[in-house]
Design brief:
Blueprint: E1 3-12, H1 21-30, E2 43-47, E3 66-68, E4 74-76, H2 81-89, H3 97-100, E5 104-105, H4 110-113, E6 126-127, H5 150-153, H6 157-166, E7 180-184, H7 193-197, E8 203-205, E9 212-214, H8 224-228, E10 234-237, E11 242-245, H9 250-253, H10 260-264, E12 270-278, H11 282-286, H12 294-301, E13 302-303, H13 308-316, H14 321-328, H15 331-338, E14 343-344, E15 355-358, H16 378-384, H17 392-399, H18 404-426, H19 432-437
Helix pairs in contact: 6-17, 17-18
The structure holds iron/sulfur cluster (SF4) (2 copies).
One iron/sulfur cluster binds next to helix 7.
Length: 443
């Protein structure tokens, strides 16, 4: 067993209101420069929706279909020698500026100088890059306007996959429309394909805390990392010709401050903490045959920081006492491994992502609740959780490679916790059987 530390994050999706404060404060701190106008190290996506850059989740068909080969090298899923040569020399798998969105400056004078007319004003924004009017056809969060309805469903690669595989589980009518927000940063993966795909050795994972960074002096602008990251969380700076990415705010972390996105989050939904993991078993976990086993394999890598065997092994690796202490108190370890309510995003990408999500406990769609509080009727949820408005099948495609069991378990626990804590906070006698059924007893 080789014990290493990883700084990780959990985001509780029920609490995200899509205000974008995290994105804006991150941009002010890190990408408020020319060359990276289009870049959002932190972005907040509308779900269902296309994502940012759009259709990044569609690994099967995007630009022809790509997969990671041995030792993390990117290779075409099909095609002959020509495609392989193109992969090496031309790197044609990059998103283009329209997949991100064309950054523009709003001309406020339009508000006062535009002539009166019959038409609704539709002033075309001017591109920050070309200085000419944009041909805006799509931008991040435009999916909001479709509100999870049928038109939106047709654009989301996750739903498209569900349509073919389990159409009956997903509903597509406006009456049952649903939406939620998915904030995203770099996953600081345990098995980072960006690092594996960099020909210059510029991408690296810090051994002390697992943060993945780009060495700006070594980067030669190949952009293989942009292609190789399935989450599309490395970006190219067109001014400097170098790759850039989320740094987990390491200069702040090193002096004991949280990341900017966490500190400024209006919903207070981001939890940061270290976890200990077994580095010897990373390759084994990333290559389990069945994608639906990846979540458990990833979870299995996380080690119990209170186990004396683990802490002894950690000390032998030189992990300092204050890190071990922080690992014991880590909310990330508690939410992922102890309570099992936080799940990884797209574990089937096999990079072992270290940003975890508490899935949204959406309201039930019918008048099922005897408590009067949507999504908190434990009796009904244990029996009929598929009546939640957000289909469990959709959440499973996002977080567990399609396996509904861990998603159901997380939602049931959340619902039990809410119901239990509401009674506690109201001064009512809490129902201990609720806690027991959700496995909360003694935790
Ligand atoms: Fe690298 Fe992408 Fe993983 Fe971040 S999310 S560590 S950029 S592979
Ligand atoms: Fe969501 Fe927090 Fe970001 Fe607002 S600041 S969009 S609540 S993650």
């Amino acid at each position: 067993m080789k014990v290493m530390t990883q700084l990780a994050m959990v985001m509780n999706l029920d609490k995200c209101i899509g205000c974008h404060t995290c994105s804006v404060t991150c941009k002010q701190a890190w990408t408020n420069r020319s060359g990276v106008e289009y870049v959002w190290f932190n972005n907040v996506e509308t779900r269902p929706g296309q994502g940012y850059p759009r259709r990044y989740q569609d690994q099967d068909t995007w630009r022809g279909g790509w997969e990671l080969g041995r030792r993390g090298r990117l290779k075409p899923k099909s095609g002959g020698r020509l495609r392989k040569l193109l992969t090496i020399f031309a790197n044609p798998v990059l998103p283009n500026i329209r997949d991100y969105y064309e950054p523009w400056t709003y001309d406020y004078s339009t508000l006062t100088t535009a002539p009166l007319g019959d038409d609704f004003p539709v002033a075309q924004p001017v591109s920050l890059l070309s200085g000419r009017p944009t041909s805006v056809e799509w931008s991040a969060n435009w999916d909001d306007n479709l509100g999870g309805g049928p038109a939106n469903a047709g654009l989301d690669p996750v739903i498209e996959r569900l349509r073919s595989e389990a159409e009956e589980k997903v509903r597509f009518s406006f009456e049952q429309a649903y939406m939620f927000y998915l904030p995203r940063i770099c996953e600081h993966c345990l098995n980072p394909s960006c690092v594996a795909s960099c020909p210059s050795g510029a991408m690296y994972k810090r051994s002390e805390d697992g943060i993945v960074l780009v060495d700006q002096d070594r980067c030669r602008g190949w952009r293989m990392c942009v292609t190789g990251c399935p989450y599309k969380k490395v970006y190219f700076n067109h001014r400097t010709g170098k790759a850039e990415k989320c740094t987990f705010c390491y200069p702040r972390i090193e002096v004991g401050l949280p990341t900017v996105c966490s500190e400024t989050c209006v919903g207070r939904l981001r939890y940061i903490g270290p976890v200990l993991y077994d580095a010897d078993r990373v390759g084994e976990a990333a290559s389990v045959a069945d994608p639906t086993d990846l979540y458990e394999a990833q979870l299995d890598l996380l080690l119990d920081p209170s186990d004396p065997q683990v802490t002894d092994a950690a000390r032998r690796e030189g992990i300092p006492e204050d890190w071990l202490d922080a690992a014991r108190r880590s909310p990330v370890y508690a939410l992922t491994k102890v309570h099992r309510v936080a799940l990884p995003l797209h574990p089937e990408f096999r990079t072992l992502p270290m940003v975890w999500y508490v899935p949204p406990l959406s309201p039930v769609t019918e008048a099922l609740s005897s408590t009067g509080h949507d999504g908190e009727d434990v009796d009904n949820l244990f029996g009929a959780i598929d009546t939640l408005r957000i289909p469990v099948a959709y959440l499973a495609e996002l977080f567990t490679a399609g396996d509904p069991v861990p998603v159901r378990r997380a939602l049931q626990r959340l619902s039990a916790m809410r119901s239990y804590m509401r009674a506690v906070n109201l001064g009512d006698p809490p129902d201990e059987s609720v806690a027991a059924r959700a496995g909360m007893t003694g935790e």
